[in-house]
Amino acid sequence: MKVEIWAPGASKIWFCVFDEQGLETRHELTHRDGEYWVGDIAGLQPADRYGLRATGCDPIFNPDKLLLDPWAQHLDAPLRWHPLMAVDAEGDSAAVMPKCILADPLPEGPDPRLNRPGHAWEDLVILEAHVKGLTAKHPDIRPEIRGSYAALADPAVLKHLGDIGVNALELLPVQAFIDDQYLVQRGLVNYWGYQPVAFSALEPRYASKHPNGLEADAEFRQAVHTLHEHGIEVILDVVFNHSGEGDQRDSVLSMRGLNDAGYYMRNPDGSYANVTGTGNTLAVHNPQVLRLVLDSLRHFAQRYGVDGFRFDLASTLGRDETGFSSQAAFFQAIAQDPVLRKLKLIAEPWDTGSDGYQVGGFPHPWREWNDTYRDGVRQAWRGNGEAVGQLASAVMGSARQFDHYGRPATSSINFVSAHDGFTLGDIVSYSQKHNEANGENNKDGHSENYSDNFGVEGPTDNPDIASARQRRIRAMLATLFLSQGVPMLLAGDELGNTQFGNNNAYCQDNEITWIDWESADRSLIEYVGKLTSLRRRFPELRQRDFLHGEEVSWWRSDGVPTQDHDWLSPDFKCFQVMIENILMVFNTGGEIDLKLPPHPEGKEWHLELASDEYLPQSVRVYS
Which of 72, 121, 430, 611 could make a disulfide contact with 410, Cβ separation 3.0–4.6 Å? Predict the structure, then answer.
């Protein structure tokens, strides 16, 4: 078997094979091919376990550190930080490091690529979910597979997705990641998974039988195939802006021990660039690092048949030493790739660096998470008068951000809640974050959530408050599914799930983050199903192109067309918008006398949906 390792600064590279008893056999790679060390190692077979070692003049090279192959496709165990992994630790780390597993060719069995649903963007309804959190507490799933890849395709999950009209499942990271030092020392885990260590390997811990990569491989491939059979696409949240190795004082796990200077961006003074807030930034503008990223994406697309990717802190991927560019090598490479250019590509359009906020700045055909939608909708329904104009803009697809260079009306991924922040139920139940369980003295997470507790922090037995909360939840859900763009629902919001006020539950692998199916609000599930059905019945609600001029008309609550000054008034809380033969009424205020404008065809308006039987704080749809 031919082996090549990118390590131009190393003086020696060893390919280390481990037998079933853990005994190690080292094979030195003795030849250079440009920046790569190469060798042809006889006798290697699929499923063999291996790691890498390197030495060189730079102290970062340490032959006592067993390293993961950056291109590894399977790991034999999850990765949890141990003191022997630290940069300055003495002693061999092999005993505490997972081993890479040599991959076999595409396995036998159903090929999920052959039955991709191929939904158009305007028809997409996304559910953002965590592999474990979605299924860990579901009573109708067999206990032995709850929280696993296999559970994603369980009949109980498939039925629920069908009931609420979801046709795309966006999964939080499943690339192999580390429970990093900061969490291990506090007795916590990396639940969300945003600390990758092997970009092409599935996280082993979500395999149902044994936590290893081969089990994960088989389960995930089958799950994607089954989801496809039910018309559900699979989108992966992927992390290529940084790795779980931390900063220069942290761990040596893989890339740092092979080519520290090549894999990570540096500041002019030689220190680590850190526009991700994690201690390091991957140098994706480097051709070899770009190759690693593209190989990983193609691997998930071709081996597992995934339909698209959501890129964490995607602004970082468009950076070089001069800053962000929508024409960066990363975007151009994907645009010409025969596999990747056909997939769904979603950016989280920001990072923590200067010029990192790039909402609306990504090239076609990219779609983007739209936090201006989230904030505007939350503020408007909280009663901020000046936010009603933001609500109207959000409903029409946020044209100010996205209507340029021929981009479609589906450029905005609309959401009112996501994994990072309050659940929808918590938005109407907590005015303050409650992250004490994270062990950071409640200093982590966003402090401004545009939330409202209706006078009582947390759960309440007051029926008036409980009723008001439910009305607002329904109004925000209606807003989400009636807006132009692509709706994304946080898993659990459709059944009233809570995280007890924790808005940064990245380290909580427990009852805080696992969806509570037993307490599900069945009426809310039915309501979401009605919303998605309504969206699919009326193409006016899911346009491909932005609507302008006579295609849309705006009306006040008294049936009079709106004027510019109406939108500037803090007392303006209700508006009506007509798109062809559909009329939508958004009332974010109190009691009003509503007069509908005339039907464009002279007919009587027919009420299709009301977020509440009473008009205050409600959304209504007429046809």
Answer: 121
